[in-house]
C-alpha cells in the first residue's frame, strides 16, 4: 500500500531525509481486537429478529424493530460498564405520523444511542459512527415478511456495536457517539431526527462515519470479487449554504477540498496505516448514483459526513424477498457475508475514530500569505483550543493529486515552503506526542 511521506522541518526550507509515519501502538491494539466471531454473533442476532422493518412491532420481545433496538441498547449498556460512568445510553425516539410516502401508520421511530464522553472538559468535539438498524424486502412497505438485512445494514449496525465494544474500554479527550439509525429505508427518518438534535442542541459534531453495507465482496451480474477496497463517498462542493461560499471556493480553487472530502482523505490515510491489505477508495460524489444514505441529512445541515461502503454491491442480496429462482438464492442472508473483508472495514472505523478522539483539536486561524508574488508559500496559524500539541503537519499535494502527497513537520506556528501555491494545495493539522493528527484545515488568504 502506498504510504504518505513525512518530511521533518529543521529550519525554514531545509529538510531531513523522508520517513514513513509510524503507527500508534494503542490504536494498532484496538484494531487487532476487531473479532470475526463477534461480528458473526452480532449479525446472527440481528437476523434472528426476523424483520427489522421500521413499521414492524415495537412490543414483541423477540421479533421486529422493537426487539432489535432493545438488544442494541442492552449491548451498549453492557459496554457502558467499562467506562466509569462516562457512557450514556438512551433511545432517541418520537411518534411519526403517516406521510403519504413510506409511512402508512403512526410509528414509534427509535435510534439506539451511546455517548462515550471525552475526558477533557475543554474539548467539545464529537465524532460519530453510525449504521442503520432497519431492514426491508422487495416491497418497502412490507413490514411482516422476514427481512434479515444481514449486510444492509446489519453490517453497519454490527460495525457500530463492535466499535463500541472495543473503544468503550479506553479514555479519549474527545467524545465518540455510537448510533443505530431507524427508518433509513423509509426515507432517512432516524438520521434526520438525529441531525436535527445535533443542530438544535448546537453539538460540535466534527465528523460522522456512516457505514451502510460493508461486508459483501461479490457483485451481482458481473460476478466480480473485491475484498481489498472500501469506498468512501464524500461531497465536493458543500450542499449547505453553497450560495454564500461559492465565490470564495472558486477564487481559491477549492472545488475538491470541502470538509467532507478532507475527512475522506483522513480516513484513507489513517485506515490504510492501520489495516493491511486494504485500499480506501475515494469516490467523488456524496453517495451512489442518484441514491442516498444516513450521512446526507448531516451534510445538508453543514456537518462533515461521509458514507463508507463495500466496493461491490450485490442486488440479488439487497432489497429482495427471500426466495429461490432457477436455482439462485435471493435475499440478504448471512451466508453471503465475507467476514474477513468485513473485519478489515470495521478496523478502518476503529482506527479513524480512535485517532480523531485522541488527537488535539484543529489549528486555529490558518492563513496563507498572498500579498506578495513569490514562488515560496508562507503559512501561519494559531495553536488549537484543546489537546496536547507537540507540533504541526503541513500537508501538500499538487493540484491534480486526489490525496495529500507530503507532510512537513514543524514545532512552529508558521512555515515557509519552496513550493508555489499556483501548483500545489496546502493544509495544516496539529499532532500530539503519540502521532495522532487532528482534522485538516485549508488555509484562508491573508
Automatic annotation (TrEMBL):
Protein keywords: Hydrolase, Metalloprotease, Protease, Secreted, Signal
GO molecular function, one term: metalloexopeptidase activity
Peptidase M28 domain residues: 113-322
Swiss-Prot/TrEMBL GO biological process terms: proteolysis
Pfam families, per the entry: Peptidase_M28
Gene3D superfamilies: Immunoglobulins, Zn peptidases
Signal sequence, renumbered to the chain: 1-19
Main localization (coarse): secreted
GO CC aspect terms: extracellular region
Location(s), subcellular: Secreted
Domain of life: Bacteria
The keyword RNA-binding is annotated on this UniProt entry: no
Protein name in UniProt: M28 family metallopeptidase
Native source species: Elizabethkingia bruuniana
Amino acid at each position: 500500500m502506498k504510504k504518505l511521506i513525512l518530511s521533518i522541518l529543521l529550519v525554514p526550507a531545509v529538510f531531513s531525509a523522508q520517513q514513513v509515519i509510524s503507527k500508534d501502538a494503542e490504536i494498532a491494539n484496538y484494531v487487532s481486537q476487531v473479532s470475526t466471531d463477534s461480528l458473526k454473533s452480532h449479525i446472527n442476532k440481528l437476523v434472528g429478529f426476523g424483520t427489522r422493518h421500521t413499521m414492524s412491532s415495537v412490543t414483541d420481545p423477540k421479533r421486529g424493530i422493537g426487539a432489535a433496538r432493545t438488544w442494541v441498547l442492552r449491548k451498549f449498556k453492557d459496554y457502558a460498564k467499562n467506562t466509569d460512568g462516562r457512557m450514556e445510553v438512551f433511545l432517541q425516539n418520537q411518534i411519526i405520523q403517516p406521510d403519504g410516502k413510506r409511512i402508512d401508520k403512526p410509528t414509534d421511530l427509535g435510534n439506539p444511542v451511546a455517548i462515550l464522553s471525552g475526558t477533557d472538559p475543554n474539548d467539545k468535539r464529537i465524532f460519530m459512527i453510525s449504521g442503520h438498524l432497519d431492514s426491508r424486502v422487495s416491497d418497502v412497505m412490507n413490514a411482516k415478511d422476514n427481512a434479515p438485512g444481514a449486510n444492509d445494514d446489519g453490517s453497519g449496525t454490527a460495525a457500530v456495536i463492535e466499535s463500541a465494544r472495543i473503544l468503550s474500554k479506553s479514555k479519549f479527550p474527545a467524545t465518540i457517539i455510537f448510533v443505530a439509525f431507524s427508518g433509513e429505508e423509509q426515507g432517512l427518518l432516524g438520521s434526520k431526527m438525529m441531525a436535527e438534535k445535533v443542530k438544535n442542541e448546537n453539538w460540535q459534531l466534527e465528523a460522522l462515519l456512516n457505514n451502510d453495507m460493508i461486508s459483501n465482496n461479490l457483485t451481482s451480474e458481473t460476478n466480480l470479487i473485491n475484498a481489498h477496497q472500501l469506498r468512501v463517498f464524500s461531497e465536493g462542493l458543500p450542499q449547505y449554504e453553497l450560495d454564500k461560499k461559492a465565490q470564495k471556493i472558486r477564487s481559491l480553487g477549492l472545488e475538491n477540498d470541502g470538509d467532507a472530502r478532507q475527512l475522506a482523505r483522513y480516513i484513507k490515510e489513517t485506515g490504510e496505516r492501520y489495516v493491511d491489505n486494504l485500499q480506501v477508495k475515494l469516490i467523488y460524489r456524496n453517495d451512489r448514483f442518484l441514491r442516498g444514505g444516513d450521512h446526507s441529512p448531516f451534510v445538508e445541515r453543514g456537518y462533515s459526513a461521509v458514507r463508507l461502503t463495500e466496493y461491490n454491491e450485490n442486488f440479488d442480496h439487497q432489497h429482495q424477498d427471500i426466495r429461490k429462482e432457477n436455482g439462485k438464492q435471493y435475499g440478504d442472508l448471512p451466508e453471503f457475508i465475507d467476514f474477513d473483508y468485513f473485519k478489515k472495514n470495521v478496523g478502518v472505523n476503529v482506527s479513524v475514530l480512535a485517532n480523531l478522539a485522541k488527537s488535539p483539536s484543529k489549528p486555529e486561524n490558518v492563513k496563507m500569505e498572498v500579498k506578495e508574488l513569490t514562488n515560496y508559500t508562507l503559512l501561519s496559524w494559531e495553536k488549537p483550543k484543546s489537546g496536547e500539541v507537540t507540533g504541526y503537519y503541513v500537508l501538500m499535494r499538487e493540484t491534480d493529486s486526489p490525496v495529500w502527497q507530503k507532510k512537513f513537520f514543524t514545532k512552529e506556528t508558521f512555515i515557509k515552503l519552496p513550493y508555489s501555491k499556483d501548483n500545489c494545495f496546502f493544509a495544516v493539522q496539529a499532532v500530539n506526542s503519540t502521532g495522532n493528527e487532528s482534522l485538516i484545515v485549508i488555509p484562508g488568504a491573508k
